[in-house]
Amino acid sequence: MATTSDDKLEPKKSICPFCGVGCGLTYDENSGKGTGWEGPVNEKGELCPKGVAAFEMLDADDRLTQPMVRENGHLVTASWVEAFDRIIENFSEIVEEHGPEALGFFASSNCTNEENYLFQKIARKIGSNNIDNCARLCHASTVAAMGDRLNVGAMTNTTDDLKEADVFLVCGANPAEQHPVIFNSHLGPALQEGTEMVHVDPRENQTTRQAETHVPVTPGYDIPVLNAMAKVIIEEELHDEEFVAERTEGFDAFKAHLEDVDVTENAELAEVDEETIREAARTVAEADRAAAFTGMGMSQHKYGTDNVHALINLVLLTGNIGKAGTGVNPLRGQNNVQGASDVGASPTSLPGYQPVEDPEVRAEFEEAWGFEPPAEPGLTEVEASHAAGDEIQGLYVFAENPAITEPHSSQIREDLDEAFLVVQDLFMTETAEHADVILPGSAWAEKKGTVTNTDRRVMRMRQMRDPPGEARTDLEIIEEFGRRMTDLDCDFADAESVFDELTDVSPIYAGISYDGIGESDQRWPFYEGAESGVDILHEDEFYGGEKTAEFAAIGHIPPGDELEADELVLTTGRVLQHFNSGAMSRRTETLMRMRGDDTLEIHPADAAERGIEDGDWVTVENERGELEVEVAVTPAITEGTVFMTFHYAEPLVNELTGDYLDPVAKIPEYKHSAVSVSADE
Ligand SMILES: Nc1nc2c(c(=O)[nH]1)N[C@H]1C(S)=C(S)[C@@H](COP(=O)(O)OP(=O)(O)OC[C@H]3O[C@@H](n4cnc5c(=O)[nH]c(N)nc54)[C@H](O)[C@@H]3O)O[C@H]1N2
Ligand SMILES: Nc1nc2c(c(=O)[nH]1)N[C@H]1C(S)=C(S)[C@@H](COP(=O)(O)OP(=O)(O)OC[C@H]3O[C@@H](n4cnc5c(=O)[nH]c(N)nc54)[C@H](O)[C@@H]3O)O[C@H]1N2
Ligand code: SF4
Ligand SMILES: [Mo]
User: Fold this and answer.
1) Does the CA dihedral 528-532-534-539 come out positive or negative?
2) What's the CATH number where 310 sits?
3) Less Cβ crowding at N or C end of the chain, within 10 Å?
4) Whose CA is nearest to atom 6 of ligand 3?
5) In contact, 391 and 102? CB cutoff 8 Å
6) Taking residues 638-664, what's their average pLDDT?
7) Does 444 sit in the ligand 3 pocket, CB within 6 Å?
8) Boundaries of domain holding 393
């Protein structure tokens, strides 16, 4: 690997750039690798392989070290002045001709609160609410359902109290591989001491290995399973009568709704054994404390919001909220996906989840910011991509890789070419290849700021070296953009002063400070004047002050793609050794050694029917695209379903996924596509 920075790494206590667990990570000068410090979550300094390898990406061969601009169709290096001139000239022309709403901004769940806060403020100063982040592709539906029912979309509990659960109900999440340190260090000891786990997942994976009950649901059929479980609980009078009476509303209507639910039929629909569903229901209902987890298998569906509603019903029915070892716990994705939305990188909300549509909220921001944010909610990420060349003329993509990660890739590639595209990244990514201007930013160890992890802890990242070559810190780049594009005051002394401004406008962060966090964390909601943040939400009343939460009548709606004869369901997801678009993990030799190319997991019966053997190459196709991939024949995947990751540019699974969007959360259906699989000649 080429060394692109002469700057020596100076070990400091920072946070891992990968997942939402938020492990404390620093540099070990002896091994030249990442090593854990005793952080708020990784209390013993433990890390997963990604954290250990996290320094390798810094000096990748194609690390961007100079700005680039497109000249006669080719990207050529340029000065910062030239790069910004191009952006300002084109963006200003677009605003003049089409209005500020013709600009779209993708903020970054991989970047700090300070960077995202300032980025959304500038977008709004220009006059656009078309600002979003990757939570849209991830837990948007969870946030929508939980926001609707519980008034807040974040984890209700903490990694510390979850060990008090008697049962873990894990739906569509694989924490053993996707949140390894939480799984091994926080859930693991409880599992060893007798906490039972029910795992609802079409695949047997590392998480399932520690589960007593596995419900191998067919992708897209969680509502039939969860409704059937609710029906069994009511039939067998296992629900928590006292909780239902005191803390819920709409029980009778919910019960009436379930009268039409037939457990046998639902089990057939989801293609799982009826008795397994009944057992799972009893296990959850009979537990003193059961904690529910929900992940991408639930959220990334055309009706992802409804999936989570069905899970919330079960939690209310069994009285499992508002105390240690219970709750609805979405394990969040990137190291700052929680924070990016907290600080307002959202088309519908300003910092602290304050709705843009509320005139009083806007008036408060006008007082604080000196301008009124636009009132109309903006476009979401996939909507904005598709509007390129039409409603959207200019796109600024800050640290995302949509050419790999948005659904229906062939369409997305066309979209990206339709807009004047600015990309601020670390590498020459598949998205950067489509850019008109590329801005070289700073990797995690080259910046300071805060990130907010999955259980609402705000923690500090510390800078260990300067960005290489002419690359600049992301905050400096965003400040410069703001200065050149608007008359906003973007001369912040440092990241801390941006954070201080954020705490002034966001009540849920109001009591948090750099000093207060120190080498530990502070958890939101942390209100002005309070002594600490709130750990367990909804204890005596629901967040926002309501005493009760309502049941919701949720019915099954089939997924977007209809299955033709001979077709299989393709579901997609992740593995331990890689991360999202692979932009970071594919540039990390150690991780590539641990898992090289992608494979298609297929059940032995489906393979035999198609004359396919383990290690063969197959073509996977549907009306949206096709790809070739090696197969791994395994009984671990449920019959009728195949699985691939989205970590690779080749094969690129999103060639096949559809852009059916959940009507409420606008999340795409990554977890269910109809495909045909055939052996290559
Ligand atoms: N190693 C690693 N860790 C990561 C990431 C990574 O890329 N690699 N990414 C981070 C990010 S951004 C996120 S959002 C989180 C996501 O973490 P998870 O939510 O655990 O994500 P996935 O692995 O996509 O999906 C979870 C499980 O859903 C199952 N599944 C598929 N379809 C269905 C369905 O219809 N119903 C049910 N019940 N299950 C289904 C899959 O088999 C898979 O095991 O992980 C974070 N952590
Ligand atoms: N088929 C399928 N598709 C999916 C999913 C799925 O389960 N299946 N999951 C979806 C989910 S949950 C998510 S979260 C998205 C993720 O989608 P993306 O956010 O597009 O994917 P990442 O790989 O996390 O992209 C991060 C980009 O930021 C750059 N970067 C990282 N750190 C920094 C930094 O500090 N500064 C700068 N300037 N750049 C940086 C990286 O090089 C990379 O290009 O993918 C979604 N797509
Ligand atoms: S569990 Fe997540 S935060 Fe911790 S080392 Fe692994 S990737 Fe990093
Ligand atoms: Mo995610």
Assistant:
1) negative
2) 3.40.228.10
3) C
4) 48
5) yes
6) 98
7) no
8) 68-136+335-523
Cα-to-centroid distance, 320 and ligand 3 (Å): 28
- CA 41 to ligand 1 center in whole angstroms: 20
Residue 54 Cα to ligand 3 midpoint, Å, equals: 10
Is 530 part of a structural domain of the chain? no
pLDDT at residue number 681: 80
Average pLDDT over residues 81-97: 98
Final residue before a domain boundary, out of 523, 541, 557: 523
Residue 130 lies in a domain: yes
Residues 252 and 360 in one domain: no
What 8-state DSSP symbol labels residue 541?
S
| pLDDT, tens digit, 9 for 90 and up, residues 18-35 | 999 999 999 999 999 999
Same domain, 173 and 213: yes
pLDDT in tens, 132-170: 999 999 999 999 999 999 999 999 999 999 999 999 999
Ligand 3 touching residue 118 (CB < 6 A): no
- Please name the residue whose Cα sits nearest to atom 34 of ligand 2: 443
194 in the same domain as 105: no
Same domain (yes/no): 321, 341: no
410 and 430 share a domain? yes
Q: Band the pLDDT of 327: cuts 50, 70, 90.
A: very high
- Provide the pLDDT for residue 28: 98
Are 107 and 340 within 8 A, CB to CB? yes
Choose the final residue of a domain: 330, 346, 376: 330
The pLDDT of 505-522, averaged and rounded, is 98
- Are residues 633 and 614 in contact, defined by beta-carbon separation less than 8 angstroms? yes
Q: Tell me, yes or no, whether 72 and 87 share the same domain.
A: yes
- Is residue 480 exposed (0-12), middle (13-18) or buried (19+ Cβ within 10 Å)? middle
Q: Report whether pLDDT(361) > 60.
A: yes
Whether residue 541 is contained in a domain is answered as no
Q: Ligand 2 within 6 A of 400 CB?
A: yes
**Residue 7: per-residue pLDDT:** 76
**Does the pLDDT value for residue 3 go beyond 50?**
no
What residue ranges in 578-616 does DSSP mark as E strands? 599-602
Distance 603 CA to ligand 1 centre (A): 19
- Alpha-carbon span 393 to 332, nearest angstrom: 31
Q: How many domains does the chain have?
A: 3
19 found inside a domain: no
- Per-residue pLDDT of 97-142, as tens digits, reads 999 999 999 999 999 999 999 999 999 999 999 999 999 999 999 9
Distance 14 CA to ligand 3 centre (A): 12
Q: Does any ligand 2 atom lie closer than 6 A to the CB of residue 467?
A: no
Give 483-532 as a 3 state SS string.
HHHCCCCCCCCCHHHHHHHHHHHCHHHCCCCHHHHCCCCEECCCCCCCCC
Mean per-residue pLDDT, 9-14: 98
Residue bearing tokens 């999202």? 580
Is 156 found in the same domain as 112?
A: no
What integer is the mean pLDDT of 614-626? 98
Ligand 2 pocket check for 629: Cβ under 6 Å? no
Whether 336 is in the pocket of ligand 2, judged by its Cβ within 6 Å, is no
Give me the pLDDT at residue 84, please: 98
DSSP alpha helices (H): ranges in 595-672? Answer: 604-609
Q: Whose CA is nearest to atom 27 of ligand 2?
A: 400
CA distances from 613 to 597, 606, 608 (A): 17, 10, 7
In ligand 2, which atom is closest to the CA atom of 57?
Answer: 42
Q: What is the CATH number of the domain that holds 351?
A: 3.40.50.740
Distance 49 CA to ligand 2 centre (A): 18
With a 6 A CB cut-off, is 53 part of the ligand 3 pocket?
A: no
